[in-house]
Write a structure and sequence with these properties.
The chain is an alpha/beta fold and 253 residues long. Helix content is 40%, strand content 17%.
Length: 253
């Protein structure tokens, strides 16, 4: 592993505390995923986040999710392949339109919440996601849970897939994330984050049942909504740099 990207999901909250946290986090990451107005976000937030990213030379990405503001796009739902394609197309166009007014573009797509997890395990949904992105712009990078169905579908579609791991989320033995509805889904201490990151950088992650799961990490996500996000991200950067790994945004095709 010569280089690794650091990403965070932003443009999802309007309260002053989280907006201030975005300002502090942005210089510490290399890619940002901006909510596209479905699970969260609005044109003003998209514009603000993109401007901040541009100031710090951070790669801008789309962060589409289910249109479910009440549950923040984290509630599982049944959806057809056609609905997935329409959902993504609409949100990618929305973000592209807002960015165009700022003379900016986005270079990658990372799904949000329940849609992210569904595409990671459901073949038909993963295929629909890959089709939607390819139809919109086949040069976009696809951020996908390492080892997931979406990685396979993205590769089959000819997209450049960036495999993602999480320093602050618990894993199950099949390589999927522990749902946020379950206790312990978010790692809450620096010691937990440090321990998990060290194993990820060596190519595996320890699941909640104690098994070792092989993992390839090309980008790492640290969540803004963690109250310890800034401290965790500084810890993550220190660990990566101590391991002799360069932190850089992935190259677009």
């Amino acid at each position: 592993m010569a280089t690794i990207d650091l990403n965070s999901d932003m443009g999802e909250y309007e309260d002053p505390e989280r907006l201030a946290r975005e300002v502090h986090l942005m210089p510490l990451i290399t890619s940002v995923n901006i909510a596209c107005g479905a699970h969260a976000g609005n044109p003003e937030l998209m514009r603000r986040t993109a401007r901040l990213a541009s100031q710090h030379n951070v790669a801008i990405g789309a962060h589409p999710g289910f249109p479910d503001t009440e549950d923040f796009g984290r509630r599982d739902r049944q959806i057809t392949a056609e609905e997935v394609e329409s959902l993504l197309s609409t949100q990618l166009k929305t973000l592209a339109g807002v960015l165009a007014s700022e003379q900016l573009t986005f270079t990658h797509v990372k799904l949000h919440g329940a849609l992210y997890n569904l595409a990671a395990r459901d073949h038909s949904v993963a295929e629909a996601v890959a089709r939607a992105i390819t139809s919109f712009d086949s040069h976009l990078l696809l951020f996908a849970l390492a080892g997931s169905e979406l990685v396979k579908s993205g590769n089959r579609a000819g997209l450049t897939v960036i495999q993602e791991a999480f320093a602050d989320r618990a894993y199950r033995s099949d390589g999927t994330l522990v749902p946020r509805t379950q206790p312990g889904a978010l790692l809450g201490t620096p010691q937990q984050v440090r321990q998990q990151l060290r194993t990820i950088l060596k190519g595996s992650v320890t699941s909640v049942d104690g098994s070792s799961v092989p993992i390839r990490a090309e980008t790492l996500c640290v969540h803004l909504d963690s109250p310890h996000a800034i401290a965790f991200l500084r810890l993550v950067r220190q660990e990566i740099e101590s391991a002799g790994i360069h932190i850089a945004k992935p190259l677009s095709t």
